[in-house]
Amino acid sequence: MVLRSPHAHARFSIQELERVRAMKGVKLVLTGADVAELGPLPTPGVLPDVATFVPHYPVLARDLVRHVGDAIAFVVADTVALAKDGAEAIAVDWQPLPHVIGALAALAPGAPKVWPGRSDNLAFETQAGDAGATKRAFAQAAKTVELTVINQRLVTNYLDTRGVIAEFDGKRTTLTLGSQGSHIIRDIICGAVLKRPLDSMRVVTPDVGGGFGTKLFPFREYALAALAAEKLRRPVKWICERSEHFLADSHGRDNISTARLAIDDKGKFLALELDIVADMGAYLHCYAPYIPWLGVGMATGAYDIPAAHVRLRCPFTNTVPVDAYRGAGRPEASYLIERAVDHAARELGMAPDALRRKNLIKPKALPYATPTGKVYDSGDFAGLMARAQAVADWDGFNKRATASKRAGKLRGIGMATYIEACGANGPETAHVRLDRDGGVTVLIGSQSTGQGHVTSYAQLVAERLDLPPERVRVVQGDTDLIATGAGTGGSSSIPVGGVSVDRASKTLAEQLKQLAADALEAAVGDMEIAQGTIRVAGTDRVISFADLAARPEATPEKLAAASEFATDKPTFPNGTHIAEVEIDPDTGIVGIQNYVVVDDFGATLNPLLLAGQVHGGAVQGIGQALLEDTVFDAGSGQLLSASLMDYALPRALDAPRFTFETRNVPCKTNPLGVKGAGEAGAIGSCPALMNAILDALWRAYKIGHIDMPATPPRVWAAIEQARGASAV
Predict the structure, then answer these.
(1) In the chain, fewer beta carbons within 10 Å around the N or the C end?
(2) Residue 726 has what pLDDT?
(3) What is the DSSP string of 638-664?
(4) CATH number assigned to the domain comprising residue 41
(5) What is the reported pTM?
C-alpha cells in the first residue's frame, strides 16, 4: 500500500512509525529516509542541446510533496486490508504551501514556484523553424487568421491497472508486471534506481490489457516492491487501484496552443506561427519533454507551408506528471493545424475541403521537406481526401442537413487530413528458431498489449517458411530469454520489429535449404520450401522440418537466425477522417451519424488487426472530443475527476459504425513498405469530430469556437449564449 499526499504542495514529517511497524500483519514500512540511497526516477527523454531543469524525482518524497497523490510511504502487510490499516495509521504533520494549477497560471508573474530557488516555473523553452522567414511571410499576407485551442489533459484508463510481483531468491530479483517493454523497466529500475548490475534482475511481462504509452515507463512501485522483497525475503505484490491510477500514473496531452496562419489572396498558405504551452506536471516524467517536441515536428501537417516558426514552453505545475499517451504529441499537432485550417476556411468564406485541396502537398512534390525538419517520403493526401468524401457522400450532405433541420436538429460534417511520424523506435532484434517438433519460435523484445503481435509476427514467419501460422510460437516479455528489446511504442512493432522478424525468417529459410540440400544430396538452388517441408523442386524427394531438425548436423546455430533492424527515418502514415454529426439544440447532445476513415499505411499485413487498431484509436479520440476531461480544483489542488464516477469514458453506444478502408502508397524508407498504424486512429479523430460539431454550430448560430470535450452542457451553453446574443 502506498501512502499518498492529500495536498498539492506541502512540507511534511512522519511520526510514530514504530507504532505502525508493530501493528498486526505489518511486515515493512518504507519512507523517504529508508530509500534515500536509491536513485531518482530518470528522465531519458530530455531534448538534446536544450537547457532543461530536471528536478530530483524521488522514489518516495522525503519532506516535500508537489502534487496530490505524491508518494510518501510504502506499507507491506499480510493482506491488502492490513496494509491499508497500517498506511492510515501513519501520523503525518502537514504544512500546506502555495500551489499552482494550470500551465498558463504557472507562467504568470508571481505564480507560486513548484521548485524553490528558481526564477520561474519553466522546465525548458525551445523553438523550431525559421522565425525570420515566417515574419517576412506574414508581412506579405493578404489575410491572417488566429485560433487558440485547448487539448485537455487525459487519464490513460487501460483495461487492467498496473501491478507488480517482486521475488528475491537471495541473489536475483524477479519482477512480474504489466509493461510495454520488460527491458526498459529492468534497465531503469535495476540499473538507474536500485543501482544494481542488470543481470541481477529479471523482468517478466505476461499478457497485458492495454498500455497506450503509460505502461512503457518505470514507476515508483516497481522499485519499492523489489526493495521490499529483498528486505523481507518474501514475495511482495502490489496492484494499483483505479483511484490510484488517476493520482499516480502519468497523464496525457494538456496543451494550450495558439496558431496563426498567413494566407495569400488566392487562399494559399504562406506561413504558420505556433505558440505551444505544454504542462509537465510536478516532475519531468520519463519521456515527458520529448512528447510536445514530437508534435512540434509535425506542426505543418500534410500542407505545403513554406515557412513556419514554433515556440514551445513547458512549465511545471502542482499536478500529476504528464507523459506519452496514444499518439504522443502527434494528436496535439494534428488537432491544432486541422482546427486552424477549418477556422481559416470560415474566415475566408471557403469550403474546408476546397481550402485543403489548394494547400495539401502534391504527390509530385515528394519527398517533401517541411519547415520543421521532417521529410515526407510518400503519400497522396488529396487522393485520400477525395476517396473519403466519396465514401461519406460529402456532396449529399446538404440534403441530409435539410432533413435534420425539419426534425429540429443541427447537422454538421467535418474532416481531418492528418499525417504523423512514427515507426522508428528501436533497434529491435528478432531471433527465429526451428524447434524439434517442426514448429518455429520467435523471440523478440517488443511487447503486445492487445495489438495482436503474435498473429502479425507469425504471419511474417509463415510466409517465409510456408507453414501454418499456428505452428509459430512468439515469445515476448522476458529479459532472461530475450537479450535486448526496445519495447512497444511509437507504432514501431511492425515497421521495426516486423522487419527484424522477416529478415531473420529469410535467413533461417536459407540455412534450412542448405541443411536440406546436404540431407537430400542435391543443390541448394534446387531446394524449395513448401508446407513445412523442404523438397527438391520437381521431384518427390522431401524432408519435413521436424526430420531436418533431428539430423545430427542440424546444430542449434544452423537452426536459428537473428536480425536486428534500426532506423532513424520515421514512417509517415496519413489519411482522412470524416465525421458527420447531429446535435439536439435543446440538450446539447451530439450524435455521430456517420464516420469514414481512409488511410495510407504503406502496406497492409493483416486487414482485421489493422481495422481494430484504427477503430480503437478513433474511439479514444471520440472519448477525448466528447467526454473525457481531467479537472483539478485551482483552489485546493485536488483532482476532481479522480474516479470513473467523475471521468467519462466512451462506451459501445458512443462509438459509431465505422467505414474504414486503405489507399496505400508504399513507404519508401521501410523495407516492408509499411507505415506505423497503432496510433493513427487517435490522431485523426479529434479534429474531424470537433470540426463536424463546429460546422453544425456555425451553420445554425455562427458559433466559431468550442473546446474539447464537447459535452452536452458545453454545447448547450454555447447555443444558449448564441441565441441570447441574436435576440438582443
Answers:
(1) C
(2) 76
(3) -BSS-STTTS----GGGS--EEEEE--
(4) 3.90.1170.50
(5) 0.96
Q: For the chain, which residues score pLDDT lower than 50?
A: none
Q: Could you list the residue range(s) of the whole structural domain that residue 88 is in?
A: 1-97
DSSP H stretches of helix in 108-191: 131-140, 182-185
Tens of pLDDT, residue by residue over 383-402, are 999 999 999 999 999 999 99
Give the model confidence (pLDDT) of 209-257 as tens digits.
999 999 999 999 999 999 999 999 999 999 999 999 999 999 999 999 9
In a domain, 666, yes or no: yes
DSSP at 710: -
Same domain flag for 510 and 549: yes
Residue at which a domain ends, from 47, 81, 97: 97
Maximum pairwise Cα distance, the chain: 95
**Which strands form 560-565's sheet, in the order they lie side by side?**
472-475, 440-444, 428-434, 560-565
Q: Residue 497 carries which DSSP code?
A: I
Q: 578 and 550, same structural domain?
A: no
For residues 583 and 709, membership in a common domain is answered with: yes
62 lies in the same domain as 79: yes
The C-alpha angle with vertex 654 and arms to 708 and 342, in degrees rounded to 5, equals: 40
DSSP string, 523-589: -GGGEEEETTEEEETTSS-EEEHHHHHHSTT--TTTTEEEEEE--S--B--EEEEEEEEEE-TTT--
Residue 446: inside a domain, yes or no?
A: yes
CB of 135 closer than 8 Å to CB of 692: no
Number of domains in the chain: 3
Using CA atoms in the order 54, 56, 59, 60, what is the torsion angle rounded to 10 degrees?
-140
C-beta neighbour count of 712 within 10 angstroms: 14
At 7, is the secondary structure helix, strand, or coil? coil
